[in-house]
Fold each of these.
Amino acid sequence: MKKIKLIIALLVLVPILLVPIKLMSLGKKIELGNLKSYIFNQPSENNKGIEIDYLGTSCFIITYKGHTYLNDPFFSNPNFLELVSGKYPNRDTLINSLIPQKENISLITITHGHYDHCLDFPSFMPYFNNRAKIVASSSALLSLSPWIKNNKDLLQYPIERMAKPNWIYSSDKTFRIYPIHSEHQPHIGRIKLLTGAYEKPLAQAPGPVWQWLEGHTYSYLLDVMDNDTIVKRLLIASGEIPISSLEKLHELDQEKQIDLLFYPYWHKEKCGTKFEEAYQKLKPQKVIFHHWNNFFRDPNKPIQMIRSSDINNELKKKRTEGYPVSIMIPFSKTSI
Ligand SMILES: [Zn+2]
């Protein structure tokens, strides 16, 4: 009997202990010096003054002529204990030290409901302007509702409730986005973690990691506009873009080709093939890989890559194969 109890205890304990070990070994030191030639750099003759701040994982702030767009508000990289307890330190000091440019946000998009795409939403709220719009899956918006309800001005666009897919414009008309149905990649083998969707507004904001449900995953086609003219077209990809969505994007290409594709690259095999498929279909001018940094690491410590991304070798390989790929270092800035 004792033996059986011991076996059961081990069966429960071992996987629980394996999780932090796995998380601790996810990151790998990266020599930034070796990546110099892969840092994104737009030649000045083609630079229209659109500023891009990269905050790691999939978080981007894009600013044009004083108007700001935000994708996937997450930069604080909580540790394992914070993730399981759901108790996160106040991140307002961190946001001020790490992110200087965040004023006048008029459009926010969220690719899916996992914590590494949404957690720092409240830290950005003071910087939303009073006509700001947020576009996300209905589930992600419902999970953020305890915070959103404190900002009555924020206009919500749950994608599943749109009569048909269409462009959504920021009120300043500087940005417009087109949601693209995408598929979240499996985390371990073929298993996807934290699937499911919320159907009702939450009474309390999600805390521990398992309360952040995916909902549905979307990529966003983003046009930066100037008086109805498209200055640049960007695609912020999340997960994988299925064939039907690639077809739709190809159709939208008739108006303008994609200048810059942001593609998630956290696993060289899982992301690699799908990236090539998307690239061949869309032929963007340039590509920036994102989601390759170890987001379990304190943002004040030196950057690590997620081991499975093998980002330095992958960049080299993809460039040799003719793909115009680059990266941005978390908490850096560029302009296009
Ligand atoms: Zn996710």
Note: The chain has a mean pLDDT of 90.
Amino acid sequence: MGLFDKFKTIFQKEPEKVTKYEEGLEKTRKEFISQLSNLSNKYKFINDDYFEELENILIMADIGVNTVMNFVDKLKLRVKSEKITDSKMLKDVIIDELFIMYVGNDVINSKINYNTNGPTVVLFIGVNGVGKTTTIGKIASKLKSDGKKVLLVAADTFRAGAIEQIEEWSERVGVRVITKNVKDPSSVVYDGLDIAKKENYDVVLIDTAGRLQNKVNLMNELAKINKVIKTHIEDAPHETLLVIDATTGQNGIAQAKSFKEITNITGIVLTKLDGTAKGGIVLAIKEEVGIPVKFVGLGEKVEDLEPFDIEKYIYGLFKDL
Ligand SMILES: Nc1nc2c(ncn2[C@@H]2O[C@H](COP(=O)(O)OP(=O)(O)O)[C@@H](O)[C@H]2O)c(=O)[nH]1
Ligand SMILES: [Mg+2]
């Protein structure tokens, strides 16, 4: 039994666990499944043309050129060694190999690294419009229902309306937000962490403005924010989550590479997977950026955020196959 059949057996028993993934990946699934099915109808037997078309399909799904090349090479080896000739048989192997490619030899860590001694500080970075504030609202809501005392810090002092937006989330979710009418984001961060320590908050979620246009400025700004954080809590931030928008495809990958050069990122939040047919980007991030995806955004509503789970993701992509 292939890996995919195993996921199927597990998740069909507990369908509610995968609903969000199924819904959020619908666009990608439709596109992927119809193309893979067309391919195996067109080529009953596997040949070079088959592989070439498969490569195109995977690249179009934003899996990334290098990743696809490595992947198809591996597939060819398996086809040879297992003497697979029928293209219908290959579908299962493709799913297995995609899974193996993501997991590799690594221990995949998609958990938040919690501070056991004082507030856990999570810094959110990423360019304008990717979904930082929305993600903070969603995570705040989850943490609150887990019984955690959550504080938001409005350190996006740059964008007009940014403070109002996070205040709305704070009201909606019922968690406190620290704001300050200043230009310098680190000044708000300073106040926020001061309060977090004095009032024993469990988790502090810090919203920032991501101005990647000016890398030096952004680098200085993030360095200053990090310094201020460390004056309050030495080993913080415990997480620096880079938010990227799945609908921007390879551009999102480029952003991740740039941010990685200027600051230490511990995880990626990939938003708007529901809005793209190119959900293969999850696989490219792992291969090309080398930072684990920790959360995925699967819609605009407060409950549309899930800790990333490769098994649920693969199931959501291929369940109709
Ligand atoms: N469909 C969809 N929309 C999202 C998701 N996450 C964020 N958005 C939308 O993206 C837009 C920008 O989000 P915002 O949080 O303001 O981005 P920020 O500038 O990075 O803080 C908003 O309209 C959000 O509702 C998601 O997972 N799916
Ligand atoms: Mg924002």
Note: The chain has a mean pLDDT of 91.
